[in-house]
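Structure in, sequence out. Go:
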C-alpha cells in the first residue's frame, strides 16, 4: 500500500514536472518571440517643430538612447510620437496652439506651411495590431497652418478615432504608459487617486471595454428615447381610430343629402338667372333720373362759376385802376410836401443873409471908429514932426558954425593927425547910423507889434473861417450822403414795390387756380365717397356671401358673445395681390366663405345658433382642426420650375394667427402662370401637387382639371375687398390733396393780404422818400455855395497873412542889425581912442583946442543925428498910420461891397418867383382822386361780398352734385349688386357642383316650384350640418390608420428587444471589466512591491484602491504608498523628488512586468536620480528590453552605457535639429 502510495506521489510529481517543463517551454517561446523583436521600426518627420528638414530615426532592438545638449530638440522626438498618436492638447506639446508644432522659421529659413510625422511599426504575425492584416503599419498625421489635421494608416485617410481605437489595450497611445515625458513622473505622483486610473486601466486592458460600454450606454439612451416616442405615437393613433369609425358611418348619409341639395340649388339658380332682367330695368330707371338731375346741377354750377370768374376779373381791373389813382394821389402829396420843404429852406436862407448883413454893418461901424482914431494919431505925429524939425534946424546952424571953425583948426593940424580925423569920422558916422537906428527902433518895434496883432487877427479869422468851412463841408457831406442813401432806398423800395406787385398778381392767379382745383377734387371726392360707401355697405351687409353667412356676420356685430367666437370669414382675413386674385379665388372656391373659429366648441355653439334662427348652413373651420400638409420634400423642386410663382400661401398677406387656416387651404397649392406650364408640371410630378393658374384653371391631385370661361374679377369677394382698399386709398389721397390745396390757398390769400398791406406801406414810404430827397438836395446845394465862398475868403486872408508875416520878418532883421552896429561903434571908438593917445605928443594947446572943438563937433553931430533919428521915427509913424488908415479904408470898401451883395441876395430871394404854395388845381385833383379811391374801395367791398356769396353757392351746388352722384353710384351699385348676387349663385354652383348655366339645364325640373325652395334648401343644409363635418375618405383613412397602428406596434417591440439586449451587453462588459481590472491591479501591486524593493534596496511600496466613495472598483481611485529604507510608510506627496521619480519608475516596471508593451518612450525620467539609482534604472531597462523596445531621451552616462543604439541630436544651424548616429565614447562627452 505504501508502495502504491509512493507510485502515486511519483506519478503526481512527474505530472507536475511535465507542467513546469511545459511552462518553461512556453516562457522560452515567448522570450524567443519578443527577444530581439523590432516593434517600432522608425519615425519620419518633416516641418515638425525644429525638424525643418526631413529626418528619419531607424530604431533598433533593445534600448535606443537619444542624447544631445539642452535645447537642441531631443524632446521634440517624444512630442512627435505623442502628436502622431492623436494628442489634441497644444499645452501637452509645450505650445499655445496646435499650429505652434509647425516649423516657425529662423533668421535664415522661412517658416513652413505644414508638418508631417510618420510612425512605422513591425506587425508581422499581427502581434501588435491583430485587426490589421499587414506586416508593417504606418501611422501618419499632417497639419497645415489653417488648422486642418489629417490622419493616415498605410497612406489611407482615416479618422482620429480610428487611430486611437487601433491602439486600445496595447499600452500605446496618448493616454497610455508607452510615452512618459518630462513632468509626467511628477503628474503621476501629484495626481488625484481618481486621475491615476487611466494608466492602470490601459495596463489591465479594459480601455477598449470602457469605450464599448460608453458607446453601449449612449445607444441605450437613444433607444430609450425611440421607445418612448414609439409608445406616444401608438397612443396617438389609437385615439384617432374611434372618431374615424364614427365618420365612416355618417359618410353615406351625407352623400344622399348632398344629392338632393344639389337638385334644389341648381333649379333655384336657373329660376333666378331667367328672372333677373326685370329687376335690373327698375334700377336703370333710377339711374336715368339721377343722371338728368346731375346734368341740371352741372349747368347751374357752370353758370355760377362764370359769374364768379367775371367778378374776379372786375375786381382785378378795379385793383389796377385803384393802384394808378393811389399812385397819382401819392405823387401830388409828395409835391405838396416838397413845396412846403422848399419854403422852409428859403426862410432859413433869408435868416442867414440877414445875419450876415447885421454882422457886416457892425464890422463897418468898427472900421469907422478905427479910422477916427487913426486920423487923430496922424495929426499928433505931424505936430511932433514940425516941432522936432525946428529944433533940428537950430542945431544944424550951430553945427555948421562949429564944423567950419573945426575945419580951419584941423587944416592947421593936418598931416600927422589925418588918420585921427579919419578914424574920428568913421566913429562919428557909426554913431550917426546907430543913433538913426536907435531912433527908429521904437517905430520898428511899434510897427512890428501892429503887424503881429494883425497877423494874429488874420490867423484867428482864417481859423474861424476854416472851422466854419469844415462844418459846412460836414453838412454838405451829410446832405450828399442823405441824397445818395435816399436815392438808394428809393431804388430798393421801388424794386420791392414792383416785386410785391408781381407777387400780388401771382397770388390772385394762384388763388383762382386753387379754387378751380378744389372744386374739381370735391366733385371727384363725391364720386369716390359714393363708391366707397356703396362698397362698404356691400361689405358690411356681406353681399355676395351665402345668406346664412351674411346673417350670422351681421348678428355678430351686435352680439359680443357671437363676435368673440368668430375669428372672421376666410375672404376677409387675407390680402391678395391683384395679379393673383383669380388664382387664389378659384383655389379657395367655397372655402372663401368659411367662417373661421378657434376650436370645435365655438363651431358647435355657432351651429346651434344657426339652428335656433333658422338661417341655414355654414361651413365652419376650427383652427384646432387644421392640419397643414406641406409639399413633400421630394416634390419641392416644383417651386423652381419655369413659370411657377410659388406656393399660394406665400403669395398672400395675412395675420400670423390665421397661419393654420392659410397653410391648410393653400399651403400645398402651387400657382403657375399659364395652363401649358401647369400641364407640364402636373405630368412631371405625377399629379402630386394641386396647381392653379392665373386664369383660374385648377389641377387637382386626383387628376381632375377644372377650367373654362373666366368671370370678371371685379365681382369676386377678393376683388370686393381690393375695391374697398382702392376706394379708401383714393379717398384719402383726394382728401389730402384738397387739404393741401386749401392750405396752399389760405397761404396764398394770406400772402395776398400781406402784399396789399406791403404795397400800401411802400407807397407811403415812397412819398416820404421823395420829400426827404428834395429837401436834402436843396440843403446840399446851399451848403455847396457857402463852402465855395468860404474857400475864396480863406484864400484871400491867407495871402494877406503871408504879406504881414514877411514884413514882420523884415522888421526882426532890422532890430537884430542894431546889435551888430553897436559892436562896430565900439570898435571905431577903440581905434579912435588909440590914435588919440598916440597923438598926445603933438602941441598941447592946439591939440587941446582941437580936442575941445572936436568934442563939441562930435556932440553936435550926435545931437543932429538924434534929431534926424527922431524925424525919421516920426516919418515912419506917419507912414504906418497912413498905411493903417489906407487899410481900414480898403476894409471899409470891401465890407460895404459885401453888405450890398448880401442885401442884393436878400432882395433876389424875396423877389424870386419860386413856387412856395400849393396850387388850387392840385388841391382839387387830390380831392377828386380821394373820392375815386373811396368809390373803388366801396366797389371792391361789394365785389368781395358777391364773390363770397358765389363761392358759397358753388359749394352748395357741388354738394348737391356730389349727393346726386352718390345716388347714381348707389343705384349703379344696386345694379351691380343684382349681378353680384346672381354671379355669386353662379360661382357657388360652379365651385360646388362644377356646373355652368348651360350645363345646369340638363338638371332642370319642369315641376320645380321656386316658392318654398329656400326652405327646402335650408332644411337640407340643416340635415347636412347636423351630420357635422363629413369625411368622405373616412373608411379608407380608417383602414390606413389601423395598418399604421399595427406597423408601429411591431416597430415598438423591436425597439424593446434592442433595449434589453443593450442592457445585457453593458452588464456583461461591466462584469468582465471588473474581473480584468481587479486581477491586473492585484498583479501590478505585487510587482510594484517587488520592483520597489529592488530599486530602493529594501523598504516597502504599496498600491491601494480607494473605495471610500464607491463600491465599484472601476470607479475607485488609486493611492500610492512608499516606505524607503529607514523611513515610515507614508503617502508619496511627502517623498523627495528623487524618491518620487524612483517610485514612478517602479510603477512603470511593475506594469511592464505584467504586460510588456511593444515599445516605450522615456523622456529624461531618470533626471532626478543620483548616479547609483541611475545605474540601477539602466540595468532594469536592459533587463526589460528583452520584452519591450525602449527609446530613451537622456543625459545620464549609465543609461547611455546600457543602450544598444545611440542617436545624437544636434543643432548645427540655429533653430534646425539634425539626427546623427554616434558611438558610446562620443556620447559620454554629452553625459552628466
Amino acid at each position: 500500500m505504501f508502495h502504491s502510495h509512493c507510485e502515486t506521489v511519483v506519478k503526481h510529481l512527474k505530472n507536475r514536472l511535465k507542467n513546469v517543463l511545459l511552462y518553461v517551454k512556453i516562457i522560452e517561446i515567448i522570450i524567443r518571440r519578443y527577444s530581439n523583436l523590432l516593434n517600432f521600426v522608425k519615425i519620419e518627420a518633416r516641418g515638425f517643430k525644429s525638424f525643418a528638414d526631413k529626418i528619419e530615426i531607424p530604431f533598433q532592438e533593445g534600448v535606443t538612447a537619444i542624447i544631445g545638449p539642452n535645447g537642441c530638440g531631443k524632446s521634440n522626438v517624444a512630442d512627435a510620437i505623442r502628436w502622431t498618436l492623436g494628442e489634441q492638447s497644444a499645452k501637452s506639446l509645450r505650445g499655445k496652439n496646435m499650429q505652434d508644432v509647425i516649423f516657425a522659421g529662423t533668421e535664415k529659413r522661412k517658416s513652413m506651411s505644414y508638418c508631417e510625422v510618420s510612425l512605422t511599426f513591425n506587425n508581422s504575425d499581427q502581434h501588435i495590431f491583430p485587426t490589421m492584416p499587414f506586416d508593417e503599419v504606418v501611422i501618419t498625421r499632417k497639419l497645415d497652418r489653417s488648422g486642418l489635421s489629417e490622419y493616415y494608416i498605410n497612406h489611407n485617410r482615416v479618422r482620429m478615432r480610428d487611430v486611437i481605437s487601433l491602439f486600445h489595450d496595447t499600452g500605446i497611445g496618448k493616454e497610455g504608459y508607452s510615452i512618459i515625458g518630462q513632468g509626467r513622473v511628477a503628474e503621476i505622483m501629484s495626481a488625484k487617486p481618481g486621475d491615476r486610473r487611466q494608466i492602470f486601466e490601459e495596463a489591465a486592458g479594459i480601455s477598449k471595454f470602457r469605450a464599448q460600454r460608453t458607446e453601449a450606454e449612449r445607444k441605450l439612451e437613444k433607444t430609450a428615447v425611440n421607445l418612448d416616442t414609439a409608445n406616444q405615437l401608438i397612443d396617438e393613433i389609437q385615439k384617432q381610430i374611434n372618431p374615424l369609425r364614427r365618420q365612416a358611418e355618417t359618410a353615406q348619409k351625407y352623400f344622399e343629402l348632398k344629392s338632393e341639395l344639389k337638385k334644389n340649388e341648381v333649379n333655384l339658380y336657373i329660376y333666378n338667372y331667367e328672372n333677373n332682367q326685370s329687376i335690373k330695368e327698375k334700377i336703370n330707371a333710377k339711374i336715368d333720373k339721377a343722371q338728368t338731375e346731375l346734368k341740371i346741377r352741372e349747368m347751374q354750377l357752370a353758370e355760377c362759376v362764370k359769374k364768379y370768374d367775371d367778378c374776379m376779373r372786375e375786381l382785378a381791373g378795379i385793383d389796377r385802376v385803384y393802384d394808378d389813382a393811389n399812385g397819382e394821389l401819392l405823387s401830388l402829396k409828395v409835391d405838396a410836401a416838397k413845396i412846403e420843404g422848399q419854403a422852409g429852406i428859403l426862410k432859413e436862407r433869408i435868416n442867414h443873409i440877414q445875419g450876415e448883413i447885421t454882422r457886416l454893418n457892425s464890422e463897418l461901424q468898427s472900421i469907422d471908429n478905427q479910422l477916427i482914431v487913426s486920423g487923430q494919431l496922424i495929426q499928433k505925429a505931424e505936430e511932433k514932426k514940425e516941432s522936432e524939425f525946428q529944433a533940428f534946424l537950430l542945431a544944424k546952424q550951430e553945427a555948421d558954425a562949429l564944423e567950419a571953425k573945426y575945419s580951419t583948426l584941423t587944416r592947421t593940424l593936418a598931416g600927422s593927425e589925418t588918420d585921427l580925423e579919419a578914424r574920428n569920422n568913421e566913429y562919428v558916422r557909426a554913431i550917426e547910423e546907430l543913433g538913426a537906428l536907435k531912433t527908429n527902433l521904437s517905430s520898428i518895434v511899434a510897427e512890428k507889434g501892429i503887424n503881429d496883432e494883425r497877423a494874429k487877427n488874420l490867423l484867428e479869422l482864417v481859423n474861424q473861417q476854416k472851422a466854419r468851412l469844415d462844418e459846412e463841408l460836414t453838412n454838405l457831406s451829410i446832405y450828399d450822403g442823405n441824397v445818395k442813401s435816399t436815392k438808394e432806398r428809393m431804388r430798393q423800395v421801388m424794386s420791392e414795390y414792383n416785386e410785391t406787385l408781381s407777387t400780388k398778381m401771382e397770388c390772385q392767379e394762384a388763388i383762382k387756380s386753387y379754387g378751380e382745383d378744389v372744386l374739381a377734387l370735391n366733385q371727384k371726392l363725391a364720386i369716390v365717397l359714393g363708391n366707397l360707401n356703396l362698397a362698404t355697405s356691400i361689405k358690411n351687409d356681406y353681399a355676395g356671401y351665402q345668406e346664412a353667412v351674411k346673417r350670422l356676420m351681421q348678428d355678430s356685430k351686435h352680439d359680443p358673445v357671437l363676435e368673440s367666437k368668430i375669428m372672421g370669414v376666410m375672404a376677409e382675413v387675407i390680402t391678395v395681390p391683384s395679379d393673383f386674385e383669380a388664382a387664389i379665388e378659384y383655389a379657395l372656391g367655397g372655402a372663401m366663405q368659411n367662417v373661421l373659429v378657434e376650436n370645435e366648441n365655438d363651431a358647435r355653439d355657432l351651429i346651434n345658433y344657426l339652428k335656433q334662427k333658422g338661417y341655414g348652413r355654414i361651413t365652419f373651420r376650427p383652427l384646432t382642426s387644421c392640419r397643414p400638409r406641406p409639399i413633400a420634400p421630394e416634390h419641392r423642386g416644383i417651386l423652381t420650375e419655369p413659370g411657377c410663382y410659388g406656393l399660394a400661401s406665400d403669395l398672400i398677406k395675412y395675420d400670423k394667427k390665421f397661419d393654420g387656416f392659410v397653410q391648410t387651404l393653400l399651403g400645398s397649392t402651387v400657382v403657375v402662370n399659364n395652363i401649358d406650364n401647369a400641364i407640364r408640371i402636373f405630368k412631371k410630378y405625377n399629379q402630386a401637387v394641386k396647381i392653379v393658374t392665373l386664369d383660374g384653371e385648377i389641377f387637382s391631385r386626383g387628376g381632375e382639371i377644372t377650367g373654362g370661361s373666366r368671370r370678371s374679377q371685379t365681382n369676386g369677394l377678393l376683388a370686393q375687398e381690393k375695391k374697398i382698399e382702392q376706394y379708401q386709398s383714393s379717398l384719402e389721397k383726394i382728401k389730402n390733396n384738397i387739404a393741401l390745396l386749401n392750405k396752399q390757398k389760405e397761404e396764398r390769400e394770406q400772402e395776398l393780404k400781406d402784399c396789399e398791406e406791403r404795397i400800401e406801406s411802400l407807397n407811403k414810404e415812397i412819398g416820404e422818400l421823395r420829400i426827404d430827397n428834395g429837401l436834402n438836395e436843396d440843403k446840399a446845394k446851399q451848403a455847396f455855395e457857402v463852402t465855395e465862398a468860404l474857400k475864396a475868403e480863406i484864400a484871400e486872408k491867407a495871402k494877406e497873412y503871408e504879406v504881414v508875416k514877411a514884413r514882420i520878418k523884415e522888421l526882426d532883421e532890422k532890430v537884430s542889425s542894431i546889435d551888430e552896429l553897436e559892436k562896430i561903434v565900439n570898435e571905431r571908438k577903440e581905434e579912435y581912442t588909440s590914435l588919440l593917445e598916440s597923438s598926445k605928443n603933438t602941441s598941447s594947446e592946439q591939440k587941446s583946442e582941437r580936442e575941445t572943438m572936436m568934442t563939441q563937433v562930435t556932440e553936435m553931430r550926435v545931437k543932429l543925428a538924434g534929431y534926424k533919428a527922431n524925424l525919421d521915427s516920426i516919418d515912419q509913424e506917419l507912414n504906418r498910420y497912413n498905411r493903417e488908415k489906407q487899410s481900414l479904408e480898403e476894409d471899409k470898401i470891401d465890407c460895404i461891397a459885401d453888405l450890398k451883395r448880401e442885401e442884393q441876395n436878400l432882395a433876389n430871394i424875396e423877389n424870386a418867383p419860386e413856387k412856395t404854395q400849393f396850387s388850387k388845381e392840385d388841391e382839387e385833383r387830390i380831392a377828386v382822386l380821394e373820392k375815386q379811391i373811396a368809390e373803388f374801395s366801396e366797389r371792391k367791398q361789394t365785389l368781395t361780398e358777391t364773390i363770397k356769396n358765389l363761392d358759397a353757392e358753388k359749394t352748395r351746388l357741388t354738394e348737391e352734385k356730389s349727393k346726386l352722384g352718390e345716388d347714381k353710384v348707389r343705384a349703379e351699385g344696386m345694379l351691380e349688386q343684382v349681378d353680384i348676387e346672381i354671379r355669386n349663385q353662379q360661382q357657388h354652383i360652379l365651385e360646388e357642383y362644377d356646373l355652368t348655366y348651360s350645363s345646369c339645364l340638363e338638371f332642370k325640373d319642369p315641376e320645380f316650384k321656386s316658392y318654398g325652395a329656400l326652405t327646402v334648401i335650408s332644411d337640407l343644409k340643416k340635415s347636412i350640418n347636423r351630420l357635422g363635418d363629413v369625411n368622405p375618405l373616412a373608411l379608407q383613412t380608417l383602414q390606413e390608420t389601423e395598418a399604421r397602428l399595427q406597423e408601429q406596434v411591431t416597430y415598438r417591440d423591436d425597439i424593446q428587444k434592442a433595449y434589453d439586449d443593450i442592457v445585457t451587453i453593458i452588464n456583461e462588459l461591466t462584469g468582465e471589466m471588473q474581473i480584468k481590472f481587479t486581477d491586473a491591479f492585484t498583479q501590478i501591486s505585487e510587482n510594484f512591491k517587488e520592483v520597489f524593493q529592488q530599486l530602493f534596496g529594501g523598504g516597502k511600496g504599496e498600491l491601494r484602491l480607494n473605495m471610500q466613495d464607491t463600491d465599484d472598483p472601476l470607479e475607485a481611485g488609486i493611492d500610492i504608498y512608499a516606505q524607503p529604507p529607514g523611513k515610515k510608510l507614508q503617502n508619496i506627496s511627502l517623498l523627495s523628488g528623487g524618491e518620487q521619480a524612483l517610485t514612478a519608475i517602479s510603477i512603470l516596471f511593475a506594469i511592464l512586468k505584467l504586460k510588456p508593451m511593444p515599445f516605450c518612450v522615456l523622456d529624461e525620467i531618470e533626471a532626478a536620480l543620483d548616479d547609483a539609482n541611475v545605474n540601477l534604472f539602466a540595468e532594469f531597462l536592459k533587463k526589460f528590453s528583452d520584452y519591450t523596445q525602449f527609446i530613451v531621451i537622456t543625459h545620464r552616462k549609465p543609461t547611455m552605457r546600457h543602450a544598444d543604439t545611440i542617436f545624437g541630436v544636434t543643432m548645427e544651424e540655429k533653430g534646425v535639429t539634425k539626427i546623427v548616429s554616434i558611438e558610446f565614447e562620443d556620447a559620454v562627452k554629452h553625459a552628466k
